Task: structure prediction
Amino acid sequence: MKAICFNFEIHQPFRLKRYRFFDIGNDHYYYDDFADDDIVTRIAHQSYIPAAETLLRMIEENKGQFKVSFSISGVAIEQLQQYVPEFIDLLKKLAATRCVEFVVQPYAHSLASLTDPDEFRQQMEVASAQIKDLFGLKASVARNTEFIYDDDIAPQLAAMGFKGVLTEGAKHILGWKSPDYIYTAATAPKLRLLLRNAKLSEDIAVRFSDSSWNEFPLTADKYMDWIASTPEEEQIVNLFMNLETFGDHQPAGTGIFQFLEALPRFAAEKGVSFVTPSEAIAKIKPVGELSVVHPISGADEARDTSAWLGNELQDEAFRKLYSVAERVRLCDDRRLKQDWWYLQAADHFYFMSTKSKADGAAHSMFSPYETPFQAFTNYMNVLADFIVRVEEQYPLSIENEELNALLTTIRNQATEIETLNKELGSMRKNIEQYNVEHKLREPEEEAEPKAARKPRAKKAEAKEEKAVEAPKCKPGRKPRAKKTEE
Amino acid sequence: MKALMFGWEFPPHILGGLGTASYGLTRGMWECGDMDITFVIPKPYGDEDRSFAHIIGTSQTPVAWRDVNRDYVESRIGKVMSPELYFRLRDHIYADFNYMRLNDLGCIEFSGRYPDNLLEEINNYSICAGVIARTIDFDIIHSHDWLTYPAGIHAKQVTGKPLVIHVHATDYDRSRGNVNPTVFNIERDGMIHADHIITVSNLTRRTVIEKYGIDPAKVTTVHNAVVPLSQDLLDIKMPKGKEKVVTFLGRITMQKGPEYFVEAAAKVLRNNHNVRFVMAGSGDMMDKMIKLAAERGIADRFHFPGFQKGRQVYEMLAASDVYIMPSVSEPFGISPLEAMQMGVPSIISKQSGCAEILDNVIKTDYWDIDAMADAINAITSYPALYKQLREDGLAEVNQITWDKAGKKVIDIYNKVLGR
Result:
């Protein structure tokens, strides 16, 4: 029996405000809140909310037969929480139906997987925790930013405990093979690959309302016919698209919601079912392994990473950004960490693309900038300020390793001080108790409390010694000071 | 097809962009094949490139009969015009112009520049055009810029051949809106008499339609292009110091927006001390600009090397890191294209015609000195941006060739002639 596996993505970057060269060092707030609010609220009301309501209704009507999965970037969740919290409630309702699965993607929608495994892991962990927190669901399937995937990423995901990954059914990788099977990763045999069926996904996402398309208008009946008429052995059709497809890319007036709503009925007629990614992995056997030497993605004609990296501007910005990665991870200034995530969003690099023709049109459609040069200039100005702030925390003159060692000492000291404090507290309590117990016999027992106090004094001395050491390493002072503030 | 073109400047003796554009276009049309072009200018010097067009000077065109022999003509003007042509022209004198100040050959003297008695020179040019139009055979008349519109109209009235006028600029661009009524009338007269109008940008096209009230159907935009630079110029290497150089090249007049450049420079220098600014050229606002730079306290980093010509221009570009053209109103603006040919990233105002066809440049509004300062900072501080603009700009500008523009003009000719 055939099954459809739906995955809807939601992502919104934190857009940068116009940040001038002269703001570097003076202004540490980088975001265009007005634009974010405007765009997120508009898209939510046009698309996210009606789409989620439609899906919820479909799940209820089909009594558990209709299933979908979502993949929401952490930064998008932050914005949705801020601007349209009612949508988050809707997602919670969806999660409660048990017919919805959440697929993890890097928290910041970043390109970290291409350069910085530690950062990638951290973002996946934070994103998993966020899903657990908000929706109470444990995620077991991953989906990297914009379906970026290659043989290096596979073992990393497997090591994080993911059972499967969603990626693009890129033609240049598949060759004669079909995306409608489950494959295993060549470098991580336990990791299953679900490949997007680009043709059928884009029939909905791109061509649905294109009146010059020879299949226009697309009906649910016809569409389900296409799926049903794929070869018998092909058991899964992966339809991955942005949730904005419904109501935004394809406005409500095109009938996209009615199309979506009619799908389960025709699916039932043709004997096609719906599965979530983890169910698909559990139910369907993989047919073979797939090796991806160079990273693939779901973007642009080339289906590689050239949408974000490749031109001089993008490479430079990318290099500069990740050059401070380690340092940012070392520090614990919350605002710095937040900015670090927001600046990593792949979108910033997407806007710097100098591609022309159809790809270029797609890039400039999403870009808030007039030209890629403006996008680059603005981003680099922001990044320059960000790097100045990182340097304030840890001067670049100190090597990372040295810094690491110093920080470990400081952290250890912190825990040591804590345990010592605890000890001190309990000692005090002991003494008080002792005093209470022995109040009456005070004169005779005077010698003993003194003996108990002695070791404590010694420990305090030891603590002081280390504290004297610490100020020598200037960078260490700040984070500790922060800690005590918090 | 035979075309009679009226122009004012022709390389190598040029004063502005008009000469370069006329030359490029004529050559581009010739490259398309099957074009026989006669190009009329006020005063040829004899060193013009005549491989693709016949050049006739009005200063050698007789308007009154003088009995001179062949050898005398040969010795007097043989360098710029063949005696045969002189005698043919002499046979077509149509009225008695002896009341005018004429030389020994019966010709009117022309300066070929933009003198104070420009209007008189324009009128004289038109008188000579009458003789030329009666003499030579052609299918279509093409007038470059307002100075030659009266000549074009005259030729049209004499022969009945269709007139195409080429608007390289309008008085609205030159005067920031305070038009000279005489010039306006000459321009509008030309536009009304023209069978078709070619503008160098959509910006100019809009001006022609909106300010001169011309039917949009007879106005077409043909963007200018550039002639590939010779290897000799491309090879110019200038010593580069640690400091970055930002260059403005052009007439220092109201139209070019020089004050915005000075203000932007002052802004940049507030944070970034690694930059020098150069305003090369001359013009009626030069003294004012020198004063302004001093007032802003940046005179030590803001330089005025004066008018540059020929090779000096390219040497200047080779020494620059950024080229800037903050024109308030620029019908086309060929100089950023030349900067790009030399591999210099350019910042141009959105109010210039070339912004319509260029992608690998930074565009700002001419009044937005913040954005301009930002762009200067970005190009001088981020090597990646510099490199990207330089390389892609070079590739882009090499695609903008005159033969493409020439092809469009020939298409317009065919349309006008109903072929």
About this structure: Chain B has two domains: 2-225+402-416, 231-397. The first helix of chain B runs from residue 17 to 31.
